[in-house]
Amino acid sequence: MDYKTSGVDIEAGYRSVELMKEHVKKTMRPEVLGGLGGFSGAFSLAKVKEMEDPVLLSGTDGCGTKVKLAFLMDKHETIGIDAVAMCVNDIACAGGEPLFFLDYIACGKNYPEKIAAIVKGVAEGCLQSDAALIGGETAEHPGLMPEDEYDLAGFAVGVCDRKDLITGENLKNGDILIGMASSGVHSNGFSLVRKVFEMTKESLDTYYDELGKTLGEALIAPTRIYVKALKSLKNAGVTVKACSHITGGGFYENVPRMLIDGMHAVIEKASYPVPPIFKMIQKNGDIAEQMMYNTFNMGLGMIVAVDPADADKAMEAIKAAGDSPYIVGHIEAGEKGVTLK
User: Fold this and answer.
1) Ramachandran region of residue 80, left (φ > 0), alpha (ψ -120 to 50) or beta?
2) Helix 10-25 and helix 112-129: axis angle, to 10°?
3) Cα 195 from chain centroid (whole Å)
4) What is the DSSP string of 136-201?
5) Looking at residue 48, what DSSP letter applies?
6) What is the largest CA-CA distance in the chain?
7) Beta strand 176-181 pairing with 213-214
8) pLDDT (tens digit, 9 = 90+) per residue, 132-153?
9) 40 within 8 A of 155, measured Cβ to Cβ
10) Cβ proximity of 107 and 207 under 8 Å
């Protein structure tokens, strides 16, 4: 009897690490100390000393049941982007710069090529957010998980000078809300999505004219990363007064999180185009409109509040970063919450 006969293949683990090294190498920053394979990842904080009052920010998350889609489609190269996005977008939302990321993959059986494909996506997410992938873990769980399934989660650390933290404390009546387009469903609401559509290879491979792609391609599109857009706003001299990452809970849960007491957000639903995938979900699932906005991002992955005088400059800065912005509403005095009309 040995470890391999019990279901854990150590040699496969070694091969996974070798296959992923080329992807991890691309994410390195000057602050990374040492290489892949140590017991911990080391990251120099020398540059942080340049800040007046540095604050560390952290975020951890996974991809939810979106991984089920990756299993069915046998497509594992983008799910890692989702894991990174869910963490670094939260850090950027608070005004922080992501510094480094670690991933955790739990699988029923270690297939080195599949693990390397997942990590390739993680590395791509790190490249998009300028974060270094400094470590991770792949754990085989025979008997606990089916051999062809896995779960993916991550953890990110960022930094921000305290004076640059986005807190919402300076929000005022008349401030403008700008939304940034999402790439689709992102990584939230997939438990409902999987009830709406038949989750078979045939169904996912079906092409729809209104989508311009197959259903599977529309659903698995990786979560948009907004780190560079928020950095572009800062570099343009725009003060982001408040920011909301539209994730699980949609607008009704996430928008109020950016507000202070006495401030109310008003969002015009007709102010931006809702991607066709959401209209298809709503129609096929016979889902009430309010529930759609309480579950999904409905086409906006990030919302920022800026002074009206900065609105035009903010729009240009977001466009310069490669994102699509829309003026979607405003802030007014009132009970803390959000109105969609």
Assistant:
1) alpha
2) 30
3) 23
4) EEEEE-BTTB-TT-EEEEEEEEEEEEGGG---STT--TTPEEEEEE-SSSTTSSHHHHHHHS--SH
5) G
6) 72
7) unpaired
8) 999 999 999 999 999 999 999 9
9) no
10) no
pLDDT tens-digit series, residues 55-113: 999 999 999 999 999 999 999 999 999 999 999 999 999 999 999 999 999 999 999 99
AA identity, residue 161: D
Quote the pTM value. 0.94
Three-state DSSP class for 231? Answer: helix
Pair 33, 42: CB distance under 8 Å = yes
Q: Distance between CA atoms of 324 and 314, rounded to whole angstroms?
A: 11
Other C-beta atoms closer than 10 Å to the C-beta of 233 total: 26
Written as six digits, the tokens of 111 are: 């297939």
Residue 88: phi, psi to the nearest 5? -70, -30
Give CA–CA dist 48/41, Å, rounded. 17
Residue 169: how many CB atoms within 10 A of its CB?
9
The label of the residue with tokens 């911990």 reads: 40
Cβ partners under 8 Å of residue 285, min gap 6: 192, 195, 196
Q: Are 190 and 69 in contact (CB under 8 A)?
A: yes
pLDDT tens digits, one per residue of 12-24: 766 777 887 888 8
In this prediction, residue 5 carries a pLDDT of 62
